[in-house]
């Protein structure tokens, strides 16, 4: 079975739901608490390459740290810069199997990695 990295915030109910879903499916899950262990630029750039869906969904655009930057949510460079400065604006949860990454909004979306 493929190992899945879950970019996780245990305070987030959607993130906890995604973790439970992966564990119930018997997946080998590596939990990365991205607030405790922020992603570096190379990791963020690689994650963007694997991300399925709209790039703008990678950031929590309603957070003040994002709004104050006035960044373009479709510009990977600006997203990386914003996430390096403010890891808490990373959308969560994100499940990543090393080939594909899916934002778990809703958490059931990550089931696509289990097929």
UniProtKB/TrEMBL annotation:
Is-annotated flag, keyword Magnesium?
A: no
Task: Cite the EC number.
Answer: 1.20.4.1
Mind telling me which Pfam families this protein's record contains?
ArsC
EC main class here is oxidoreductase
Q: Which reaction does it catalyse?
A: [glutaredoxin]-dithiol + arsenate + glutathione + H(+) = glutathionyl-S-S-[glutaredoxin] + arsenite + H2O
CDD domains attached here?
A: ArsC_ArsC (cd03034)
Superkingdom is Bacteria
List UniProt keywords, sorted A-Z.
Oxidoreductase
What would you give as a GO molecular function for this chain, any one?
arsenate reductase (glutaredoxin) activity
InterPro entries, alphabetized = Arsenate_reductase, Arsenate_reductase-like, Thioredoxin-like_sf
Family per record = Belongs to the ArsC family.
Q: What is this protein called?
A: Arsenate reductase
Organism, per UniProt? Answer: Halomonas saccharevitans
